[in-house]
Amino acid sequence: MTTPVLERSAGSPQRSRTALFTGIGVAAPNGLGTEAWWAATLAGTNGIDRVTRFDPSSYPAQLAGEVPGFTAEEHIPSRLLPQTDHMTRLALYAAKEAIDDAGVDPAQLPEFAAGVVTASSAGGFEFGQRELEALWSKGGQYVSAYQSFAWFYAVNSGQISIRHGMRGPSGVLVTEQAGGLDAVAQARRQLRKGSRLIVTGGVDGAICPWGWTAQLAGARLSPVNEPDSAFVPFDARARGYVPGEGGAILILEDADEARERGARVYGRLAGYAATFDPKPGTGGEPGLRRAAELALAEAGLGTADVDVVFADGSGVEELDRQEADAISGLFGSRGVPVTVPKTMTGRLYAGGAALDLAAALLSIRDGLIPPTVNVERQAEGIDLDLVTAVRPHPVRTVLVLARGNGGFNAAAVVTAD
Questions:
Q1: Rounded to an integer, what distance in angstroms lies between the CA atom of residue 185 and that of residue 190?
Q2: Closest residue by Cα to residue 200 from 351, 11, 344, 395
Q3: Distance from C-alpha of 23 to C-alpha of 104, rounded to nearest angstrom
Q4: Residue 247: CB partners within 8 Å, gap ≥ 6?
Q5: CA-to-CA distance for 325 and 305, rounded, in angstroms?
Q6: If DSSP codes are grouped into helix, strand and coil, which group holds residue 25?
Q7: For residue range 349-405, what is the model confidence (pLDDT) as tens digits?
Q8: How many CB atoms lie within 10 A of CB 60?
Q9: The overall pTM is greater than 0.90
């Protein structure tokens, strides 16, 4: 492990370059709330089933991961209900859980010391569909004024910051599934500039006809309508992915500030990198392996230090093979445990990698690697040490990989503090 170095921001005291995770909040298709989701994940509980948020019978893909047992009125102030999409309500739930878990009140910090950086890929699609239907069927006077921001990619960051009185640096990253890692890295940059605490991560979802049509256009949704075989990355039967909703919100704090207040620490963001894939058709090498190498280098670690890899696991044959080649190229054939717990939730877009980070932190806490479910036979040429049942294993260093549609790659290294 490398010794943290210090940097000085203009007008701010000397800051540690170390960023610690001190809070976790989760809204996921196999569990609402961190501990409920984690217990379900360790049990291999599949949260994928037939869509209930609309009638999917006329669509070629009919399965999704929907967050169970969420009643917005029980968790969200009534004044926010008319102005928020379902996705934003899930984000507000997860953010409050994460803040409570961290044992901190951001509103009590200095005025600009706390901010919000989240990831998004869709914005408030369901809210937008409802208002467009009102426009077409009734006229412009029936469209909610809240449509002006409820659809927007940055709405989760805005609503979380307003609800919790945070006026520090805020923003949104839009890099599809890579966004969950990119947002956390941007949060770390803000800590290095002088912020004390950043609420970060991602919650996403567009399970409505308008959003469904957009997802189908990508031609990567699995046409299989059996929940236990529709989303099976690295498997010979893989035919695409199942989309889902939800994700995780995390509290990232400057290490000195966290320790001074006696915070409970889940782990450290030790390394991160992002790369882009080459232009299609040019024959260039995909950028995922390079991202992993750079993240490990920043962390001052080698492949032998990694206890488990949380893979992106797209479920798309070509992408699965590229990722398997990157992992095997780094670690050797079956050289490191690999897991894809998103097989229980579906692909959550910007929420997916954030949820993997939450799982990585709890793996460190509990010494358990969560399973990849429903994968029976790896595709020809893929030879990973895929964890298919919960595996007790000392975990101190985790590599999390994420790929976003459009050529985005991200890798993060999380370690025990």
A1: 9
A2: 351
A3: 9
A4: 26, 27, 28, 90, 91, 94, 180, 201, 202, 203, 204, 348, 350, 351, 352, 354, 355
A5: 20
A6: strand
A7: 999 999 999 999 999 999 999 999 999 999 999 999 999 999 999 999 999 999 999
A8: 10
A9: yes
